[in-house]
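As a warm-up, study this chain.
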Amino acid sequence: MILTTTNSIEGHKIQDYLGIVTGVSSNIKTSFSFKTEKNMKLISNIINKAKEEAFQNLKENALNLKANAIVGIQLDMETEAGSYFFVSVTGTAVKVI
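Now compare it with the structure written out below.
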């Protein structure tokens, strides 16, 4: 599966546009009362986990449409009161040759 933020893929031709796909992470909760280097690393790991989960969901949804690539990917990350992380990724599922 080719993933890109661009609207085209160099060396490939988009044969068919299959639809908009999204992937979201679960609400991931964490709580830290102060920022230390250790806590910042933990927060970074939590954000990376949420992004990975969202991208896995995005790819799964694209595969359900028989896509072999996703173009125009955009990522949105939300946090609420510094304790919940939510990641959403959106793109266009396509068939490339």
